[in-house]
């Protein structure tokens, strides 16, 4: 499987990081080694002093597809999930300043949290109107709505499949809303879709 991540898909998040609004979706990949193992804590890596949480809605692909048209994209996923794209922000900034790829800051071991619980998309009246959130030590720090995405789920699948063949089990991280912040040792991060808890992560 592969993890395809979308950057800069929420206007307020673009503004909080003072990034330029893109004309097309920003894509990057994480290897399967980036997935945080089930029931394991997230260990802050030694090479970063500023790791940020970024909660994101996830889509799991259920069939092989290439050059998928938007009108057919809904056939390629049945499940909606939630995860965290951990980012070594200090390292990312250094790489961006040099015009280098972000992988060291985004794709390191444990940098991709995939919640254990997946929800059937039939549970939602509209996948373009899903609320999700992240709590840090019981405090709400991020709140997102898929209605605020610059590119909606089906549009992302169309765009991504132009460049990458999508395979069964691939996971798309659809972008993070505003409110990202630094994690600290002993933090507890809990992610919710609507009011249903999807994951709980300890930071070490």
Task: Please describe what this structure looks like.
With 204 residues, the protein is an alpha+beta fold. It is globular. The protein contains 4 helices and 14 strands.
Q: Helix and strand layout, with pairings?
A:
Layout: E1 3-7, H1 11-16, E2 26-30, E3 51-53, E4 55-61, E5 77-85, E6 87-88, H2 89-97, H3 103-106, E7 112-114, E8 119-120, E9 131-136, E10 139-145, H4 153-163, E11 171-173, E12 181-182, E13 188-193, E14 196-202
Parallel strand pairs: 1-11
Antiparallel strand pairs: 1-2, 3-6, 3-12, 4-5, 4-11, 5-7, 5-8, 9-10, 9-13, 13-14
Briefly, what is this?
The chain has helices at 11-16, 89-97, 103-106, 153-163; strands at 3-7, 26-30, 51-53, 55-61, 77-85, 87-88, 112-114, 119-120, 131-136, 139-145, 171-173, 181-182, 188-193, 196-202. It is of the alpha+beta class.
């Amino acid at each position: 499987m592969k993890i395809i991540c979308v950057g800069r898909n929420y206007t307020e998040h673009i503004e909080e990081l003072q990034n330029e609004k893109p004309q097309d979706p920003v894509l990057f990949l994480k290897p399967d080694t980036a997935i945080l193992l089930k029931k394991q804590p997230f260990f802050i890596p030694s090479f970063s002093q500023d790791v940020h949480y970024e909660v994101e809605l996830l889509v799991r692909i259920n069939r092989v597809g290439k050059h998928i048209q938007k009108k057919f994209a809904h056939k390629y996923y049945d499940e909606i999930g939630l995860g965290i794209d951990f980012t070594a922000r200090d390292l990312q900034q250094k790489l961006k300043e040099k015009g280098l790829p972000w992988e060291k800051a985004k794709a390191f071991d444990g940098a991709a949290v995939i919640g254990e619980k997946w929800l059937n998309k039939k549970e939602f009246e509209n996948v373009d109107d899903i609320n999700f959130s992240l709590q840090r030590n019981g405090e709400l720090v991020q709140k997102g709505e898929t209605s605020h995405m610059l590119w909606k789920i089906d549009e992302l699948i169309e765009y991504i499949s132009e460049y990458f063949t999508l395979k069964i089990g691939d996971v798309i991280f659809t972008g993070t809303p505003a409110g990202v912040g630094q994690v600290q040792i002993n933090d507890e991060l809990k992610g919710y879709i609507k009011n249903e808890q999807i994951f709980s992560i300890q930071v070490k």
